């Protein structure tokens, strides 16, 4: 049976904007997040407290985060290490995310260390965050395929997922970072994770739409009992390590499918579309979302 309600974890301002060539001014980011909240998204990943040289697009985190007070929504932020966590806590962040990799190649490329060394880096971060009563999400990248290593065996994903849960992560987000997964793989991975004792209620999915499979993969995950889905308004972003420039699953496309299935999200699709059109104008290129086109085009 499908879930009655899905919690959308909006990642446009973070995963979307981190992959844009243009650095978006802090005023525009602020308005973007305000508009996403006004459209009914109750979880909006705001930014990352990472090294500014690694992700210059999000180097303004200290300026941005304090502008978001009073929105009444959850505003998770990415923190790779204790330095990042301290920066986030100092500004009052109440939800943070660490980001692990299922593959060695991506751990090196993204975090400058091995899979296990990255997990060692996260352990004190999760401990300290939990000690402060802060919620922790654990991202897991390259769960299905990796640009350097090829297909990823579910055993690797299970091992790192187990480590993140044992560390204290409240929720995991399974990332198809380069968007190569197909629905059969999604079903198989979720079955492997549940067989390993990881409750499906703690799992979210994070699909990229490189091969147009993101919605099909989402439906496969919903059929396995997943009820947290990551998406990016307007399908913003991409992955610097994927050949194609297509971004995350577009939030509008997701909402359209869920609405048709009678699954509640609390999102006002019209408001969301006009936000994505507005953002696309700021970025100087149209939104790749089919739903945005269908609802706002000529
Ligand atoms: P490193 O170079 O190994 O770090 O990078 P280090 O610990 O050796 O420190 C080097 C310098 O960085 C030092 O400064 C530190 O103070 C500074 P120096 O002494 O040279 O002046 N530093 C920091 N500065 C600010 N904030 C910090 C911080 N930490 C260290 N938090 C590090 C290691 C993890 C920092 C680096 O690799 C990094 O920042 N990586 C971030 C990469 C990133 O953000 N990637 C995108 C997010 S993941 C993703 O998008 C996938 C996802 O969407 C899911 C999916 O689709 O799969 C989540
Ligand atoms: Mg991503």
Automatic annotation (TrEMBL):
The keyword Lipid metabolism does not apply. Keywords: Lyase, Metal-binding. InterPro entries: Aldolase_TIM (IPR013785), HMGL (IPR043594), PYR_CT (IPR000891). Pfam families: HMGL-like. The keyword Lyase applies. Transmembrane segments: none annotated. One of its GO terms (molecular function) is metal ion binding. NCBIfam families: PRK05692.1. Belongs to the HMG-CoA lyase family. This is Hydroxymethylglutaryl-CoA lyase. It comes from Streptomyces cacaoi. The lineage of its organism: Bacteria, Bacillati, Actinomycetota, Actinomycetes, Kitasatosporales.
